Amino acid sequence: MDELVFQEILLELGIGLPEFFTFLEGKVHRYPVKDFEWACFPKLDSQDRIIDICIIVPEFFDEQCIRINIHEYAHAFELFNELGQVYVENKDVREQNAKEKELEFLRLRLKKN
């Protein structure tokens, strides 16, 4: 899958803005393996404010890998909207939001087929 096509999917899901994609340039680490501990995490300053974001995701092998990418980009977009703010873990809420975007992707996919 082409990166621009993926960005269109993200936009359709309400994940991202042009400045978000520009901000992420050089911060997304895409690997040619399927099984790994994929992640999105904030980089914090000495006062625990979010100053940067790092994403580790698989290449687009199949639908599962696309869903992993959607999940991690959903986390990244949340963090992007919190740049400069003190980081609050809130893992359960963050995970639920990212999983909802995955489900929304599946619903859109079914609707188009």
How are the SSEs ordered, and which strands pair?
Elements: H1 3-12, H2 18-24, E1 28-31, E2 39-44, E3 50-58, H3 63-80, H4 91-112
Parallel strand pairs: 1-3
Antiparallel strand pairs: 2-3
In short:
This protein has one domain. Helix content is 50%, strand content 17%.
Description:
- With 113 residues, the protein is α+β, with helices and mostly antiparallel strands.
- The chain has one domain.
- It is 50% helix and 17% strand.
- It contains four helices and three strands; from the N terminus they run H-H-E-E-E-H-H.
- It has helices spanning 3-12, 18-24, 63-80, 91-112; strands at 28-31, 39-44, 50-58.
- A three-stranded mixed β-sheet has the order 1-3-2.
- A hairpin with a 5-residue loop joins strand 2 and strand 3.
- Helix 3 (63-80) crosses helix 4.
- The longest helix is centred in the C-terminal third of the chain and has 22 residues, at 91-112.
- It starts with a helix and ends with a helix.
- The model has no long low-confidence stretch (mean pLDDT 95).
Oligomer: single chain
The tally of beta strands, per DSSP, is 3
Please give the domain count.
Answer: 1
Shape: globular
Strand content: 15-25%
Continuous helix count: 4
CA gyration radius, whole angstroms: 14 Å
Largest sheet: 3 strands, mixed
What is the chain-wise order of helices and strands?
A: HHEEEHH
In whole angstroms, the N-to-C terminal distance is 18 Å
Sheet with most strands: strand arrangement: 1-3-2
Instruction: Average the pLDDT over all residues and give the rounded result.
Output: 95
Poorly predicted runs are none
**Structural category:** alpha+beta
Fraction in helix: 40-55%
